[in-house]
Design goal:
The complex is a heterodimer of chains A (134) and B (69).
Chain A lengths: L8 E4 L5 H9 L3 E4 L10 H10 L3 E4 L18 E4 L6 H11 L5 H4 L3 E4 L3 E6 L2 E7 L1
Parallel strand pairs in A: 1-2, 1-3, 3-4, 4-5
Antiparallel strand pairs in A: 5-6, 6-7
Helix pairs in contact in A: 1-3
Chain B lengths: L24 H9 L4 H7 L5 H17 L3
Classes of the chains: A alpha/beta (134), B mainly alpha (69).
């Protein structure tokens, strides 16, 4: 996990497995899971609003969140989407382990950040505005 | 051999979620194909009922049987 202190505050939707939350917490990341606040089986829009109301970055595996753009993202802490060939927590933990080292809350704000095994892609209004190699 | 009717082919849609959740059935397949047990999958997503996960697998078996030659 990050050599510097990780400043991102995350809200994990129900796609994120509980062991990933446990793992991130053990690394000092501030993260709240939808399950822990009884917010399960909710539509994407509701998770989006919940993360905003909690002022936490939305963490998900659901690519459907890429539809949130433009004015919808104003004042939103941002979205981190993990893209992996597999949804198992082992893969997701590995990607986040590398990815969160290079992500700050300012970098994510009002944006969608796609994190894969080898890169971080920042999107705003559906366009790629920045790319980092991992 | 009969032709596959594209109108009745299974597609990615909400019904591809495990019942009672918004977890795609593909997640369950990822876990099982990588050697995790059903119990381990259920502990990763504790709000999913065992019966729902098993039902999802039965449905998949049914779908694949429909397209067997």
């Amino acid at each position: 996990m990050p050599s510097r202190k990780c400043d991102v505050h995350l809200y994990a939707d129900e796609n994120i497995a509980i062991p990933t939350v446990t793992y991130l917490k053990s690394k000092g990341v501030s993260i709240v899971h939808a399950y822990s606040i009884g917010f399960i089986n909710k539509k994407d829009e509701l998770h989006f609003k919940k993360s905003k109301s909690l002022n936490r970055i939305l963490l998900s595996l659901d690519k459907d969140f890429r539809k949130f753009k433009g004015a919808l993202m104003d004042d939103h802490p941002g979205i981190i989407l993990v893209t992996s060939g597999s949804s198992t927590f082992e893969h997701i933990n590995e990607i986040l382990d590398k990815g969160l080292k290079k992500i700050s809350s300012d970098y994510v704000r009002r944006s969608i950040i796609r994190v894969t095994m080898d890169k971080i892609v920042k999107e705003k209004d559906g366009k790629v505005v920045n790319e980092k190699k991992l | 051999m009969s032709k596959i009717d594209v109108n009745t082919m299974p597609t990615a849609k909400k019904s591809n979620y495990i019942k009672g959740s918004r977890i795609p059935v593909s997640f369950l397949l990822d876990y099982l194909s990588e050697g995790y047990s059903l119990a381990e999958f259920l502990s990763a997503y504790p709000w999913i009922k065992r019966t729902s996960a098993k039902k999802a697998l039965v449905n998949l078996k049914q779908i694949s049987s429909n397209y067997a030659f």
